Structure formats: structure tokens, C-alpha cells
Sequence to fold (484 residues):
Amino acid sequence: MIRERLSGNEAVAVAMRQINPDVVPAYPITPSTEVPQYFSSFMANGSVDTEFIPVESEHSAMSACIGASAAGARVMSATSSQGLSLMYEMLYIASGMRLPIVLTCVNRAVSAPINIHNDHSDSMGVRDCGFIQLYCESNQEAYDNLIMAVKIAEKAMLPVMVCFDGFITSHSVENIELLEDDIVKQFVGKYEPEHYLLNPNEFISMGPLDLQNYFFEHRKQLADAMKDSKRIIEEVSEEYAKISKRKYNLIENYRMDDSKIAMVVLNSTAGTAKEVVDKLRDEGIKVGLVKPRTFRPVPVKELVESLKDMKAIAIMDKADSINGFCGPLYSEITSALYSEGLNIPTVNYIYGLGGRDVKTSDIEDVFRSLLKIAKDGKKSQTTYYLGVRE
Amino acid sequence: MITDNMGAKDLPIGGNILEDGNSELFNTGEWRNKKPVHLDDKCKHCMLCVMPCPDNAIIHDEYDKMLGFDYNKCKGCGVCAKVCPFKAIEMKDE
Fold:
């Protein structure tokens, strides 16, 4: 175990150095630029023997990932915001062809108006593209999830997106515990795909035309793979806990044991909210926090298990679906609860768009309004825009 | 060999085809709405129709006798009828 202090981007680049992938095609975009930047300096220093492809766009980056992965290579890349938007077409092809590409998504707002700061509009915008999505609260989680992502992707034969907050996580330097290089190498092992284009002993066509008679079955395979990936994520996390002493589940329950009020929140804001949970607990108010680590697959069973006895829930969305109703996390989690026959007063907060700072006082306001909803047993409104100037 | 009575559990994943030379099995003749008909009495067996056929659908005996069409492959594009100097190929509605 190595004690270090690294930014989120640096931590991810170090993980990539330790993984030593075969091919990294990448195109720089704020705030993920440093990932390929640090990685290319590792290449220049000779500490990896990766083929680095500086492509002309993110569409080409993901296209090159697909080609290399189909050929049989272990492939990684990184992007943000507009870059992920430009990859959109190819993301579906990566998952549809069942290629285990690992993509770091440093979350940033999507234009317009143009903004380089953090929200989750980019990864939420591609939530149905067939990538597994892992969300990370801290630099440590970004590092750990990236290493696990390689193994999860290859076992599930699904691409994985590791998401963490632009600038807040990507550029803040935190204390971090790294694994030794050889332990990481041993953990990820050698990539041995069952079928790949450069296998001289096998005939194969990949990505052929797939019409009415077959397409539906192949999409069902994809749906089944995503469903089954829950088991794989749990297995890989279990295995990772053995080498790192850090155990990750599909969701994290923070002080939920005797709680009747909960907040569901992704990524770095969970850190801010945990501070508030502790403060309110010190005042004797029983509140808790649920942080989904996976959004794809949706950890339905785990969320229902954690939230079923709540009297009021706030679901925090750092992205808006612009559907005249609510954000993406809200619609999926309330639908999970409703499907289990639970009708708990649940409110949605759209917050922090374009990097608007979310303070502990904002989170405390949310908890205080939940206390009132829990007491009355009803809510007056479903969706709020936290701290916006009307 | 992939067939359309196979389910999601049996089909190779991701739409892969794990065999070679199988484009022959793809029956493109189903796409046709006009059908070339060989008029044997007019045909001089000049073989001018063979080379431009995009589907290799002209059946011939080496290069000296035109025998007809492989209707499993012929998409009915009509190029053969167009190039025939003797009007020995006629396009008819299916």
C-alpha cells in the first residue's frame, strides 16, 4: 500500500499506468484533459507500453476504442461533456458489440450556454447507451472503481463508464491509498477475449447487418448482460476488497440504520451531505444518506431495501431531464419504489447545475424540509430547483 | 450456423458471426421486384451480361454458354438487360 496525495485525474491516470492497457485513443476536453495528459507522460517515460492514439475528435476516439477492442486489445479512454456527446453514436456500438471498453467520464455540464463546470448532464444524457455506469464520491473511489472497471467490463462483456465530478474531484488533491503496481497487474490479469478479430485460428465477422429476425434477440442479450452485471460487480468488488481492504457495494448506506429520513445523492455531493447527516445526528435528528455507486445497472433491490421504511426521501439530481417533471435519478428510483408497492413521500431536488456550489447549509435546508414532510405525511410539490434565483 | 429459430441464449453474442464464407447463405433474391428472363432464341452467348452483374447471379457454362439466372441471388437490378446487345434478357414484374 502506497500513501499519496493526488488529484482525481492523476489518480485515474496512475491506475491506467498500473493497468497498462494495450490501446488508449483519446481527445482532450476539460476537465478530463489531464487524464490522457498524465498518461502520455507515462508513455514518454516508458512506464507503459500502450499504443496511444491522439485522434481528431471524440467520435474518432470511441471509434478507435471499438476497433482496437474488437481486434482483441484492452482499451481505455477518457472524456467529458461535449466529448461524451460527440461519442454518443459510437457508445451504442461499443455496448451493442459487447466490447469491454473502460471510459473515464469526468462529469461536466453540457452546452448551451457553454460551461466547463460540474454537473451530471453528460453521463445522464447517455444513460441508456448500454454502458455500466459507476459513480465516485472521491479520488480514492475513482482510482478503485477504475481498476475494478477493467475486470467488470471484461467479465460482463459490457463497456464501463467511471464517472466523477469535474474539478471538484478531478482537480482537487486528496490523500489517497494506492496499490502496488504488481498487485494491480495481478488483479486485472491478462485480457483473454473469447472471440476477437486478430485471432488467426478463428473466422469471425463483427458488427454485421442484423435485421428483424435477429436484432431483438441481440438487444435481449444486452439487457440480460446488464442485469447480470450486478452479480459481476459484486464479485469483482469482493475480490478487490481482499487486496485493498476497501469494500464497495452497489449502493452505500450512510447512517441509515435507524433513519426515517433519507437523501439519495451521487458523487462528490454525497461527501458534503454526509457532513450534514453527522451534524443533524449530533442534534439527535435521525437522518441518513444513500449513495448509489451504480446507476447502470439500477440497484433496484438494494435501493428498495434501504428506503422501504422511510417517511420522507429527497432524491438529488445534478442533471435535469427537461421533461416538465423531474430529474433522471428521481424518475428511476421512485419507479423502483412504486414497483415494489411503496408510496413514500419523495421529493426531487435539481441542484448544482453548471457547477453551482452546493453548501452544507443547502443540504441542511433539504433535510429540514424533509422533516416537515415526514411529520405531515405529505408533500406540497415534487420538484425543486435548489438555490436557483427565480 | 445461425438460424432464426435460435433464441437470445443460443445466438453468438453481440451479433458476431463465427464462421466464414457465409454471405452465400444470404438470400438477396428476396429483395427483387423485377425479374430478368433469359430469351434463349435471341441469346448469342456473348457473355457481356456476366461481368457487370453485381451479384454473380448469371449462371453460365465456363465462358461459352449462358444458362440463366440464380434467382436466390439476383436482386433484379436490370443491368444485364441493359447491356445485352441482342435484347435477349427481358425484365418482367415479379
Notes: The first strand of chain A starts at residue 2 and ends at 7.
